[in-house]
Amino acid sequence: MRFSFCVIGKNVAHSIRRCLYPLSRTGLEVVYVDTGSTDDSVKIASEYTDKIFHFDWIEDYSAARNFAMEQCSEDMVFFVDSDEYLELPGETLPDAESFPPEAFATVPEKTDLNKTLELMNKYPHAIGRMLRRNICMSGDGYTMLDDRVERLFDRRQIVYEGIIHEQPVRRDGKQPEAYPVPMVFLHDGYILSPEKNAAKTKERIELLERQLENDKQNGTEDPYIYFQLGRTYGLADDMQKSLECYRKAMSLNPDPSLEYVQQLIVSYGNKAIDTGHYAEGLELSRFSDHLSDLADYSCMLGYAALNSGQNETAMHFYKKALTAEDHLLETAKTSLPLHNMGCIYDAYGNTSKALSCFEKAAAAGNQASAERAKRCQEKLNEPAKKFHSLILICSDSDSDSSIKNSLQSVESQFCGMEHIELGIFFTGDTKSPSGNTCMAFEKKYEDNVIFMCNETALEGDALVNEAGASLQPYFTAPGCTVMRPGQLIHESAISSPY
Fold this sequence. Notes:
By secondary structure, the chain is an alpha/beta fold. It has 18 helices and 14 strands. It has three domains: about 5-190, Spore Coat Polysaccharide Biosynthesis Protein SpsA, Chain A (Alpha-Beta Complex), CATH 3.90.550; about 190-255, Serine Threonine Protein Phosphatase 5, Tetratricopeptide repeat (Alpha Horseshoe), CATH 1.25.40; about 390-495, Spore Coat Polysaccharide Biosynthesis Protein SpsA, Chain A.
């Protein structure tokens, strides 16, 4: 059993050639349905297929798709949008030089038509989900957002519903199963001129609002429609309406195991942060059981924590992003977390670690990181300066666990020890468990930790004064904080010089 490709378009002369060319090279049937073009779309399409049909546009994408699949010779159909381009091994897309280099870098998999046909015949009642690589603007450059979309199915079992952002559903009302197919497409539909983007988003908003009104009249509300409306308002730069739509979608309690809901959660959090609602974004950490392996989710929580002044929490989430198995934006597991980690390290004076992060982020294409790396290298060429001193006063009568907790808090809250001077003023038997812990810490950070033992038992202010007087000659930083075993140093207790 084989399948037919289905493509629908209107005034798509700028993209239809590179859409149809690789499809025509597969040897499979290609059906093109035009919904009223006034440019050369039909003429160009005729160079690649003789299966061309016309459908009067009635502002209903499902109607157009359902018409298109009825024109196919095969019962199995594969829908492709006119701004999606099959990455076919051995074939070069027309005008491929117009794509940014990022489009062809780090492709997670390759198109395998034979394997796709094999899977299609193995799962005839399910829907095949292709890999789509969306080219997106990111600052002054580009990044890739990968997602899987449902496109391959049996037209006898599946029909499209929804006037916009239409979805394939089973005709018998049952929930369709899905499986991934090795079909990889580039998509540049998000890269539009301001005029085209404005016209496209205006049409989408009008159709989505109409869909919402139809749903309300039928007594239903679909979080997916609110999700798409939130995305569309975001493309129109209406951040407040976008946030309101995401909030409404989440209020309908969608299933967080669904892929679109995971995208919704990430988008909602990012929009909350963009509009200054940092706590609202950070509160989405409640979905960590479902999204912990999605780098974009961890990056979003890291950004929320960073804007809330919770730098150590931000560092935790950024590190998770680097080790996550899945991602939407490629930068979410490379340059984005690395750059922000570098900024945190740099702010606390940990220049060597900051440099390492910035260099890795720059290698992944982040230009801002390249500039920050230069500045870090300049700092490292200057004489090292510590900007804060700590004194831990303890004795052999203090529990080993309480001393360890304090020392671990120093390591953690300062994101490293390179910029800190720690003096440990110890009284009593240095061979005790607590004494051994202190000396081991000094050995671990010998360039930053000074261990000093005083056998004289002192108390209160006398002990503090003696510790300060003994250690001060070894300190170069102007500030000094005294702590006792069991006390945890938090970053908020230390004033950064930056």
